[in-house]
């Protein structure tokens, strides 16, 4: 399919996946006058609630994907756990400007590490682990502490095991039942940062401001923007992101998660081939959101030069926070409250987020720290 197509307002954008990223993508598209069709196994999904057409089917259901193709002028996806073979097949039947290869790379840590290395960016020392013999041998080279990660399917700390010595190998080896793994050296980082970038079909690249990410129990808790880092770090992070985008021939939005060490060295941790949790702040804090920029890219529109309008902090609302957040809405006029339309508020399930624009970041962070909702 040609990558020169320009999708006009009034056309239909098909989205594979019905989660909150698809919902916010759909809402951004609707601002520009597009219609939305969604393929998602669960009825009344977050994206399905705001779509013009909801196709209830598994992501690899070819009949459903053909139906999506028949009603859509362009197709994108909202997360990386799309079936690669089905997506590759779909690219021959419909207009999917992002293609399928980026999905293949980013849903497999082994392929992702190799791609990052080939792009010329630094990653933590790692080894591919396929059996117990590999693990015993590579522990000697990688050292301790180190992290064993499943090559596929892990997120929010799932599919990972921290090894602090050889005694942990027996327990860690259970991850291999899910397939090959990657053993990574532990990076003694000072901060976790991320760059969200969007690349158009003509190769133009726009980066959103670098965010500083605070995790609690391996789940993103806060993103602080701009990140509290030096100008040199910002320049280096954006340069690394650009190398990756160029190497992958990116179309659309890609998030690059990075570790920053005390001496300002940056290691790329992982990629997400879509809008990202750490970029939600852009809805209120920037002149264009990560979702609006993504829609422009896949529709062949020129990208907007992204600007931070005011410093901001984004806080995730997990299942255990929902009641407290709702109870405080009347007392928090500065909270931009987003809920994703998920029916069941499970512990640690991402139910929404809050973005606060602030002229005094230290004061805002302290107010959030002492707030009973997140204790």
UniProtKB/TrEMBL annotation:
Q: Which InterPro entries match?
A: ATP-grasp, ATP-grasp_carboxylate-amine, ATP_grasp_subdomain_1, PreATP-grasp_dom_sf, PurK, PurK_C, PurT/PurK_preATP-grasp, Rudment_hybrid_motif
Classification via Pfam families: ATP-grasp, PurK_C, RS_preATP-grasp-like
Kindly indicate where the leader peptide sits in this chain: none
- Which residues of this UniProt protein bind ATP? 109, 149, 154-160, 184-187, 192, 215, 269-270
Q: Which Gene3D superfamilies match?
A: 3.40.50.20, ATP-grasp fold, A domain, ATP-grasp fold, B domain
What highest taxon heads this organism's lineage?
Bacteria
Which major enzyme category is it?
A: ligase
- Any one Gene Ontology molecular-function term assigned to this protein's record: 5-(carboxyamino)imidazole ribonucleotide synthase activity
What reaction does this catalyse? 5-amino-1-(5-phospho-beta-D-ribosyl)imidazole + hydrogencarbonate + ATP = 5-carboxyamino-1-(5-phospho-D-ribosyl)imidazole + ADP + phosphate + 2 H(+)
This protein's pathway: Purine metabolism; IMP biosynthesis via de novo pathway; 5-amino-1-(5-phospho-D-ribosyl)imidazole-4-carboxylate from 5-amino-1-(5-phospho-D-ribosyl)imidazole (N5-CAIR route): step 1/2
The ATP-grasp domain is annotated at: 113-299
Query: What keywords is this UniProt entry annotated with?
Result: ATP-binding, Ligase, Nucleotide-binding, Purine biosynthesis
Report the EC code(s) recorded for this entry. 6.3.4.18
Q: Does the keyword Cytoplasm apply?
A: no
Q: Which PANTHER family match?
A: PHOSPHORIBOSYLAMINOIMIDAZOLE CARBOXYLASE (PTHR11609:SF5), PURINE BIOSYNTHESIS PROTEIN 6/7, PUR6/7 (PTHR11609)
Assembly, in brief, is: Homodimer.
What is the purpose of this protein?
Catalyzes the ATP-dependent conversion of 5-aminoimidazole ribonucleotide (AIR) and HCO(3)- to N5-carboxyaminoimidazole ribonucleotide (N5-CAIR).
Similarity section: Belongs to the PurK/PurT family.
Q: What is this protein called?
A: N5-carboxyaminoimidazole ribonucleotide synthase
Which species?
Answer: Bacillus norwichensis
